[in-house]
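Exercise: predict the fold of this chain.
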Amino acid sequence: AAMAAKAVASRAAALGGYRRLLRASRDLFAGDAPALAASRVELRAQFEARRHETDPDAIASHLRDVTEVEDMMRENLVQGRLNQRGNYEVELRPMKTDPNSSCPPKFDPAPVDMAEVEKAERELLAQEKAAAAGGGAADSRSKSE
């Protein structure tokens, strides 16, 4: 009876994880039907491949993986959209941080205007020209790429 109860609990946890991943993929790929369909197919295949798992340690490991993947999909992935200029745009969200963490967030999604971008590009170009003229590090870096 105890084994049956554990099996039912594991099945319920797996189904709950599957539903959470489906919701996370729906949110991540909103507006992109092909990507959403592909993610659903892959999620289903991954869960089906483990359907008959009986090892409690392997089941626990898979359930931890589900939580990690859900967190990754919700917190670390963004979807780019092709704009009219032929570039990909992404919508950045503020990072969620652990309030108990002593580390500040590593990313500040403050807006950058085109004047800042153009200034940075001019500075980079000037540095590359100076390095090329003097045979500096930028020159050797571009040869290795």
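Check your answer against the key: The two ends are 62 Å apart (CA to CA).
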